[in-house]
Design brief:
By secondary structure, this protein is mainly alpha-helical. The chain is built from three helices and no strands. The longest helix is centred in the first third of the chain and has 36 residues. Bound molecules: zinc ion.
């Protein structure tokens, strides 16, 4: 096999695939949010209150899980958690790795 393992271009494409994965995670979280909101709206006025509350409970639990899924994304450079686990706004505001400062969507090799 003539595949070079220390080719810098290969590394940058490794970053790319990590960012691609993060976008996919954001996509999944967005779908869960949409589906949760949709099912709650669908239930409004159509079911008894306990059923509605149960739906809201399930929907918000699913949204929490999907956020955790996005949050567990690891930095492609340092391998630590990219997002600050103690900040709740970090998920949308973060532009740098919480540990090594790697820029979000960066393809730099330093
Ligand atoms: Zn990092």
């Amino acid at each position: 096999m003539e595949f070079k393992h220390h080719d810098p271009e290969e590394q940058s494409s490794n970053y790319d695939s990590a960012w691609h994965e993060l976008k996919a995670r954001h996509g999944v979280a967005g779908l869960v949010r949409g589906a949760g909101l949709f099912s709650v709206i669908l239930m409004l006025g159509n079911v008894a209150l306990p059923m509605l509350l149960l739906t809201i409970g399930c929907a918000s639990a699913a949204v929490r899980l999907s956020k955790r899924f996005v949050r567990s994304f690891r930095c492609p450079r340092c391998g630590h958690e990219f997002f600050n686990p103690r900040s709740s706004i970090d998920l949308v505001a973060a532009r740098l790795c919480n540990h090594c400062g790697l820029k979000l969507w960066s393809t730099e090799q330093s």
